[in-house]
Every structure is written in C-alpha cells, then in structure tokens.
C-alpha cells in the first residue's frame, strides 16, 4: 500500500530530482526540441511543492488533481498539457482514497498511458514520453498479476521505463518539435521519456527508502 504521506514525499522528491536534472533535460531538449523541457518541468514542480501544504489534509485524488491543475497553469509547451492530463487521469482513479493498493497502481499507470495517448496523439515508437510510460504500465500490470508486491512490480516497471527511454535514442521522432528534424532526430534520447523515467524512479526510491526506515 502507498499512503497519502508517501505520495506527498514523492512529489517533493520529484521537485528535487527535476531541479537536479534541469540542465540535463534541457540539454537533451536543445538537440531535438525547444531547449526548455528541464526549465519547464522544474518550474512546474517547484510550483507544485508550494501547493502541497494546501492539500495535505485531502485525499490522494485531490492532491493529484491539484498537481494536474498546477502543472497545466505553470508549464509551457507540450509538457504542461501532457503531464497535466496524466495527473488528472490518475487523480480520477484514486478519487477519495487515502491509500493506493497494487491494483490501484496498475490502474493508475494504465490511466496515465491513456491520458497521454489521447492528449498527445502519439503511439509507441514515436519517440515521446510514451516510450517510457507504456512499457512501465505493461510491465507493472504483468508483474502484479503474477503476484509481485507493489514495490517489486514498480521496480520491474522502472527498469522497463529505463529501457524504453534508452530505446528512444535510435528512433525517428514522429511527434512534436523533434519530428521537424527528420533523420537528424535519430541518435538522441527523448527528453520527455527521460523525465517520465525520472518521475517513476523517484516514486520507487521514495517507497524503498520509506520501507527501510520502517
């Protein structure tokens, strides 16, 4: 189970990780995009941190919905609508809940994929955040169905996301600014897939750290 306090810890940790990786993500985006992904994601999650005290007493769904609204209003470019939609979709899955089960987490990841597909009109292999997110959702669901715990399922999902992120390097971009480059987009890691991997890995790190403490 994942409780509300762990979700808040995760979101705070994401803000730290994205701040630490701001330049790295921006460098990736400078090659095939607008050179602002790291800057935008950092700004969005720093804003999220300022909003967390206002929702600390609310349920997980309300917390994640606030994240969605904050990202949409504070992140420019494509990332705001995409990540905003992602968090909006997952907030609906856990509306009213104070704890998240393994089954809930599987539904969360599937809903995240569906939201990104609908908003971004991307497919697997288009060299987008979906190339990290979709394998993570599929892997988590399969692991959970095979009886793995939430943390073990998430560990496998994060590994799949990392591989999916790396798989974007040889891909030809078919969506967003990177698609304008044609063959020149080949050979570069997608920044959106990278930030998606970092966010998922931070969730795993948060849960593992909390488990060791307790």
Please describe the structure with a list of short key phrases separated by commas or semicolons.
214 residues, mainly alpha, Serine Threonine Protein Phosphatase 5, Tetratricopeptide repeat, two-stranded antiparallel ribbon, 9 helices, 71% helix, 2% strand, globular
- DSSP summary: helix tally: 9
Task: State the distance separating the first and last CA atoms.
Answer: 13 Å
Please estimate the helix content: over 70%
CATH class: Mainly Alpha
What is the ordering of alpha helices and beta strands?
EHHHHHEHHHH
Roughly how many Å is the radius of gyration? 16 Å
Keywords: Kinase, Transferase
GO molecular function: glycerone kinase activity
Domain DhaL: 5-205
Organism: Okeania hirsuta
Walk me through this protein's architecture:
With 214 residues, the protein is an all-alpha fold. The protein has a single domain (2-213), classed as DhaL domain (Serine Threonine Protein Phosphatase 5, Tetratricopeptide repeat, Alpha Horseshoe), CATH 1.25.40. The protein contains nine helices and two strands. The chain has a two-stranded antiparallel ribbon with strand order 1-2. α7 (130-145) runs antiparallel to α8. It is globular, with a radius of gyration of 16 Å. It starts with a strand and ends with a helix.
Write the layout of secondary structure elements.
Blueprint: E1 2-3, H1 4-20, H2 22-32, H3 37-55, H4 60-74, H5 79-93, E2 99-100, H6 102-120, H7 130-145, H8 150-167, H9 191-213
Antiparallel strand pairs: 1-2
């Amino acid at each position: 189970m994942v409780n509300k306090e762990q979700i808040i810890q995760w979101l705070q940790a994401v803000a730290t990780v994205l701040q630490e990786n701001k330049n790295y993500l921006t460098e990736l985006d400078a090659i095939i995009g607008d050179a602002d992904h790291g800057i935008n994601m950092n700004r969005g999650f720093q804003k999220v941190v300022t909003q967390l005290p206002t929702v600390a007493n609310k349920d997980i769904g309300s917390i994640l919905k606030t994240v969605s609204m904050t990202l949409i209003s504070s992140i420019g470019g494509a990332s705001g609508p995409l990540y905003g939609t992602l968090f909006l979709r997952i907030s609906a899955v856990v509306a009213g809940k104070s704890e998240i089960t393994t089954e809930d987490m599987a539904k969360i990841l599937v809903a995240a994929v569906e939201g990104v597909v609908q908003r971004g009109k991307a497919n697997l292999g288009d060299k987008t955040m979906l190339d990290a997110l979709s394998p993570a959702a599929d892997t988590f669901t399969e692991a959970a169905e095979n009886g793995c715990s939430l943390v073990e399922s998430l560990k496998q999902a994060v590994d799949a996301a990392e591989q999916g992120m790396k798989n974007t390097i040889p891909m030809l971009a078919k969506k967003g600014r990177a698609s304008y480059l044609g063959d020149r987009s080949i050979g570069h890691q997608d920044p959106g897939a990278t930030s998606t991997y970092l966010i998922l890995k931070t969730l795993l790190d948060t849960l593992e750290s909390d488990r060791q403490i307790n």
